[in-house]
Amino acid sequence: MRETTKSIQIGDRTYQINKLSVQDGAWLWFFLSARMKTPDLHDALSAISESEFADLSGKVLAKCFYLSPDTNLPVPVRHVNGTVTDELLADDPTAYFDLVFAGIGFNIAPFLAKAAKEAASSKTEPEPLRVQ
Questions:
Q1: pTM of this structure
Q2: How far apart are CA 5 and CA 19, in angstroms?
């Protein structure tokens, strides 16, 4: 059974990252792997436009919550209209990026593991996905 949630600490907050839908997770992998020239996710993210980053981060952050320090219940980090509800993320671009990056990594980790396993079994570098 696949892991569906992950908790991470950013600053003094604990965040819960949930898996995207299977369709969105597959899209995320396809979208990023087509832009990866190296195994480094930063490489793929540096190759996307601002609007693509906004779409991608919107999908990821829609599945992220922070744990309320008072109740320990999950609180969405974004309103439905896209504005950030968490003060830390609203005021700290590094924290915002760290959560987006962690959310992406959590969602594409199964694809990376499969690619690494296939590369190890063939002992060659896997060909990057190409859009025809």
A1: 0.81
A2: 6
